[in-house]
Write a structure and sequence with these properties.
The complex is a heterodimer.
Chain A: H1 7-17, H2 24-40, H3 45-54, H4 63-85, H5 96-99, E1 114-123, E2 130-134, E3 147-148, E4 154-162, E5 164-172, E6 176-178, E7 196-200
Chain B: H1 2-10, H2 16-38, H3 46-61, H4 67-78, H5 83-104, H6 109-121, H7 125-129, H8 141-153, H9 157-169, H10 174-190, H11 194-204, H12 210-213
Classes of the chains: A alpha+beta, B mainly alpha.
Chain lengths: 205, 220
């Protein structure tokens, strides 16, 4: 006779399979207690937030979007670098065209401080606009407009300049180039318009 | 696309990365013109720009002031010179600076640039060498500037050199050189020939004692 055929074993199996009838009132009491427990202990907002942040997530990314994201990060780096270095020359000194309200120089540094204010005068009573251009403002026609003196009719501008040699010219009405009659000429550079030279004295001169 | 949208529905947070990437790409595209605008010689064609960069690098390697080389390029751009002329002018500048350094030795960048201008105006390198020896504290800047102006205005080369060299050896100061320039320029404007104007004025120029201005340079 096998153990599974023993009457006692069969009785145990039968009893185990029999559905247990639970008292309905007891079940309601248990469920009420569970609900009450949940209501007494709300989850703090911070914990909920932390759980949202720290909960692992799965991102579905295509190679194209991954590439875009990488390019974007590089772009942000380049832009940040450009903005950080804007205003600093290679030698670490502040650039004159950024440091001054009147933009001046976009050229390699001469390593000297700006120490002399130089007044430029151009006699052009019939001119509508006159600009001063030279090595001190990167030969940019828009950077140093001159102002007309209503009494004399002369166009003037005063600029702080480094001590040393500066080559410059006047541009009348945006297209006519003129040298300064009160300053020596620079040699012809093959461009067809004469320029002038101003030697600004300084401590080293 | 449908697959992408469905994946977005499943994981909406994944949208953040593509959006950030797109925004950054936009920034990159916007920053490119900004970087171009910061490049002062961006108006040159790529080949000319490369030549200018190479010339500037050469100047820097030889410890020559490359400021005037860049200025020469920018001047050409502002004057709407064609790229070939700009490249020629820039190369000529480097050669002049190199020759000036060889002939003058250790002088300031400004003096070197002024000397290069004298050479470009037509002076001979051996004439420049006369100014190699100079007393300490004396600068040739004004002398070279006036010399280059005379040559540019058409004063005969020998006469211009002779006048400047004489004043220099006499110990003339900057004011003397500038005074000579003012007088000669006024005479030229009055209609006198440049050579005659210089000859007349150099005779009137007061001479200083060399002992008060330092030892004059020795000739070769």
């Amino acid at each position: 006779m096998r153990d599974s055929e023993h009457p006692y074993v069969e009785w145990i199996a039968r009893e185990a399979k029999r559905p247990v009838e639970m008292d309905r009132a007891a079940r309601d009491r248990v469920m009420a207690a569970v609900r009450a427990e949940g209501a007494h202990r709300p989850t703090p907002a911070v914990r909920r937030l932390w759980s949202r942040i720290s909960e692992p997530r799965v991102f579905h990314l295509s190679p194209a979007f991954t590439g875009l994201a990488a390019a974007g990060l590089v772009a942000v780096g380049i832009l940040a670098g450009a903005l950080t270095n804007w205003g600093v020359r290679k030698d670490g000194q502040p650039r004159a065209d950024v440091a001054k309200t009147q933009p001046l120089v976009a050229l390699p540094s001469t390593g000297r401080a700006i120490d002399t204010v130089v007044k430029f005068v151009f006699a052009g009573p019939r001119a509508s606009t006159v600009s001063l251009v030279g090595d001190f403002n990167g030969w940019d026609l828009s950077k140093t407009p001159m102002v007309r003196d209503p009494r004399s009719g002369n166009w003037t501008v005063a600029l702080p300049l480094n001590a040393g040699r500066h080559v410059y010219a006047f541009v009348v009405d945006g297209n006519t180039w003129a040298s300064d009659p009160s300053a020596p000429l620079a040699p012809d550079d093959g461009y067809g318009h004469a320029s002038s030279v101003k030697n600004v004295p300084g401590p080293t001169l | 696309m449908i697959r992408f949208l469905s994946s977005m529905r499943r994981a909406p947070h994944a949208l953040v990365v593509p959006l950030a990437g797109g925004a950054s790409l936009l920034l990159l595209l916007l920053s490119a013109p900004l970087a171009t605008a910061q490049d002062p010689i961006f108006k040159l064609d790529p080949t000319s720009r490369r030549v200018v960069d190479l010339v500037m690098d050469s100047a820097m390697a030889e410890r020559l002031p490359n400021r005037s080389i860049l200025s020469r390029a920018l001047e050409g751009v502002a004057k709407h010179a064609d790229n070939r002329r700009i490249v020629e002018a820039v190369r000529r500048r480097l050669i002049s600076l190199r020759t000036a350094r060889t002939r003058l030795g250790n002088v300031s960048d400004d003096e070197l640039e002024a000397a290069a201008s004298v050479l470009e105006a037509g002076a001979k390198p051996e004439e420049l060498e006369r100014f190699r020896v100079r007393p300490q504290g004396r600068t040739e800047l004004e002398a070279f500037t006036v010399w280059a102006d005379f040559l540019t205005r058409g004063v005969p080369k020998d006469e211009a050199f002779s006048a400047i060299n004489k004043l220099w050896q006499d110990g003339a100061d900057d004011a003397t050189f500038h005074g000579l320039w003012t007088s000669v320029q006024a005479d030229i404007l009055q209609g006198l020939s440049p050579g005659t104007a210089l000859q007349n004025r150099i005779r009137e120029t007061p001479q200083r004692s060399p002992t008060t201005a330092g030892k004059p340079p020795e000739g070769p």
